[in-house]
Write a structure and sequence with these properties.
This is HNH endonuclease. Residues 74-99 are annotated as: Disordered. It comes from Pseudonocardia yuanmonensis. With 99 residues, this protein is mainly alpha-helical. It contains 2 helices and 2 strands; from the N terminus they run αββα. The radius of gyration is 18 Å and the shape is elongated.
């Protein structure tokens, strides 16, 4: 997959029949990008999960062009890193000289 991080197990988590699922979703969506972000290429060549995770049901899948899929994935990655970072932050402490 284009843009896939090194060490990601995303591809390994796809079901064995992913090629058939992918074809079905692209056909259902008439090979039209369902995201439509700025710069959309309009022609869907990829299948996107609407909600992150491993729900590969048709209701959770949509056709996406390469550019829109990359933008959505990047935004999800930034959001996920932000959640992780905020969980790791230590509580702010006031400088001893300001107490």
């Amino acid at each position: 997959m284009a843009g896939q991080r090194q060490g990601s197990d995303r591809k390994a988590r796809l079901p064995a029949n992913w090629p058939a699922i992918r074809r079905r979703i692209l056909t259902r969506d008439r090979h039209r990008c369902q995201l439509g972000y700025d710069g959309c290429l309009r022609k869907a060549t990829q299948v996107d999960h609407k909600q992150a995770g491993d729900d590969h049901s048709d209701a959770n899948l949509q056709g996406a062009c390469e550019d829109c899929h990359a933008k959505k994935s990047a935004a999800e990655g930034v959001d996920a890193r932000g959640r992780i970072t905020s969980l790791r932050r230590r509580p702010a402490t006031q400088h001893p000289g300001l107490r």
